[in-house]
């Protein structure tokens, strides 16, 4: 069995319990029970995978999107996939090709549970998924989220105007001021 799991007999049934501590591809195990009435054999297939990143959120910025998600226990990194078409129904093996053929990309070697995706086109909807990675093993993708980068407007700021002394019944030149806002 995978490290951290064990087989016990309880109430006449075999039970596999514990907390797996290493990743493992699908492996089939045979369990044989013997008593005075005879024996029985059962097989069970077990794989130990990385958990899926949960609670992925996206916050729009100017030509960027900030992504955050819950950290995955045991993961050594993350991969972010983004595209202009949704990832719904796309298998793990096709995430990268879907992203690149739909105006997006794959961002690798992310060690924190957040990432700012930059150089995006404002007013264009993008779709995002995140996977957890440990060694050569990549887990299943998170739920899909979408975001549309926008131009962030700042309120205008008028610089202090200098005092002007005007003479009654005299013509004036318009006051000039700089708009330092965005």
TrEMBL record:
Name of protein: Fibronectin type-III domain-containing protein
Q: Which domain of life is it from?
A: Bacteria
Report the source organism. Bathymodiolus thermophilus thioautotrophic gill symbiont
Enumerate the spans annotated as Fibronectin type-III domain. 52-153
Pfam families for this protein: fn3
